[in-house]
Amino acid sequence: MWLISMNNILPTLIKGFVIGISIAAPVGPIGVLCIRRTLANGRLAGFVSGMGAASADMVYGAIAAFGLTAISGLLVENAFWLRVGGGAFLLYLGVKTLLEKPSDKPAEAKAGGLGGMYLSTFFLTISNPMTILSFAAIFAGTMIGETNASPPVMVAGVFAGSATWWLTLSFGVGILRDKLTATHMAWINRISGGIIIVFGIYALTSAFG
User: Fold this and answer.
1) How far is residue 50's CA from residue 122's CA, in Å, rounded to a whole number?
2) DSSP 3-state assignment of 166?
3) 78 in any annotated domain
4) How far apart are CA 132 and CA 158, in angstroms?
5) Got the DSSP string for 106-132?
6) Which one of 61, 104, 152, 205 is most buried, counting C-beta atoms within 10 A?
């Protein structure tokens, strides 16, 4: 049973918060996708997409923090198929983004499409089971020797840190949105689509390699 007191809740929460930001901040395919969606559909679309990634980070953080070895082992054992599925989906999104023609003025995200945006980034993030190994290593380093550290508080911190990063990114990028023309968006689609395709090819190559 975890011993929780005000003396260890805040330090554990802060550690989880920092871990969440450090996992979310590197600009990979999810970051590129969220930036592009923010520019094309608005801040809400970018933030909701980021929340999908934050939710996946929370799931992996919980698996690592609670020591659910059976689940983590199952994910690692099926890493090949998860990587293939994630890589194929990245290729689909990359080609779709590359060929998409922007309108003169980007439209606001519709509520009906937000669920799809959330689920797509959740799937892409969760399809990389190697993330669980990163979380396991980080959690071991931060929680070792701390018998009063609370896994639920750590996981809450991870989610809060990741969500804060995506909120900051989407609102920051959203500032540029009104200054972009259809020509700018066309180039953004080509560049971001190309980058996502490269990430997809890398995921497939690493799976078969």
Assistant:
1) 9
2) helix
3) yes
4) 13
5) PPPPPHHHHHHHHHHHHHHHHT-THHH
6) 61
Q: How confident is the model at residue 90 (pLDDT cuts 50, 70, 90)?
A: confident
User: Does residue 60 lie in a domain region?
Assistant: yes
Tell me the pLDDT of the chain averaged across its residues.
Answer: 78
- Torsion from C-alpha of 88, 90, 92, 95, nearest 10 degrees: -130
Confidence class for position 3, pLDDT limits 50, 70, 90: very low
Give me the number of domains the chain comprises. 1
Of 165 and 63, the one with more pLDDT:
165
Q: Does 1 reside within a domain?
A: no
Question: Other C-beta atoms within 10 Å of 8: how many?
Answer: 17
d(C-alpha 191, C-alpha 194), whole Å: 5
Query: Do 86 and 128 form a contact (C-beta atoms < 8 A)?
Result: yes
Q: Are 171 and 39 in contact (CB under 8 A)?
A: no
Say how far apart CA 69 and CA 115 lie, in whole Å.
30
Amino acid sitting at position 15: K
User: Residue 6 falls within a domain, yes or no?
Assistant: no
Domain that includes residue 63, residue range = 30-208
Would the pTM count as exceeding 0.90?
no
Phi-psi map region of 26: left, alpha, beta (phi>0 left; psi -120 to 50 alpha) = beta
